[in-house]
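Lab channel / #folding
Pinned by the channel admin:
"Please post every new chain as: sequence first, then the structure tokens as a reply. Keep commentary short and put observations after the output so the thread stays searchable."

First post following the new format, from NK:
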Amino acid sequence: MSASIRHARRTVLGAALLAGVVLATAPAAQAVPGQEFVKTPTDALTSLNSVGDFATTETGKAWAVGSGWSAAEIATWDGTAWQPEQIPQFYGGFSGAVALDDTNVWAVGTSYDANNDSRPEALHSDGTTWTRTAIPEVPEKIARLNDVAADGADNVWAVGSAGIDAVQRPNADSRPYVVRWDGSSWQEVAVPVPAGTRHASLASVAVRGQEVWVAGTAYLRLDNGEERYQALVERFDGTQWTIVPTAPEPGAPDFLRFANRIAIGAAGQVWLAGQADIDQLIQRWNGSAFERGPELPPELRTPTSRGGALSVDDTGKAWVSSARSDSGGGGHRPLFGVWDGDSWNDVPVADPSLAGNGGVITTSRSGGVIWAFVTSFTSGPPVILRAEG
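Reply from TO:
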């Protein structure tokens, strides 16, 4: 990350004190009776140490994709424990995954060459073997993929950025990067950017039928010379792309700066997790515009994962992850919350001594099972949690 971006990010975060005061009126979350996250066995995962995303199916199968100390890694849930998968090896990692069924699974991410230049990677599994798929080269020569979503074998979408190097330094021409798998090959799809965009990146994608939503961040130079981050959300209706404004948020002023995750739930409900300043915020699409809320309680507002802090299912529930300071130990404890249609509820972790931040979280479409990764910043196998819906 360049010095100018770090400075801009510090400026954004410094404004959070005002936003925190305005938003602190939401009630505290209540615990869900009988529901909790439990640790799953990961001792066999000697290489995987960071999970970028999960994919899961209604049969109970699940995949965790991420990275080890140097190479991309994938693990699969066999019903009792996590096991490493054999995959084409490359230096880099995965940040997105989706499963259409047990025999149609995708994982996307980024590999790096000897110069630390990045290129997008997309692997497909038929349930037995993982195969690398060819992605068209971009004019900038460097690109990355951050997320993938699908609603059919010929309707798979992946997003990221082109012109971003290994340490996320944007080039002057960096831009949103979107590719679609049509059943036989990947094709790049052009998307618009707001006027004055200096560089932009997409973090998340959601698909239902022919409707596609993408979300990320653009860094803009305004007519008055001011430069700022602004959330970038776009919708494809099957015919054309449209840039969709986010709802006004206090303390921003009047816009989200970062769109971290977008998801589609029951009956086309579109959920967006982002940040106006430092707090994690939720917005929902009402059919014609985004609206604020449902407001997160204060303890669930700490954003711990730009890539996966929101997941929704077809029952109307939404899941978020967060973290709280451990005043006694000086570290952090993972937090998880669920929206049940009326209020946010806390879902406790069975082991109250578990340290770390709540990371990526994924639910099956039926909401029957929820997977979560805890960023613990310690050596050893990853901490993967499971809860039943």
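NK: The chain has one domain: 3-388.
TO: also worth noting, The chain has two helices and 29 strands.
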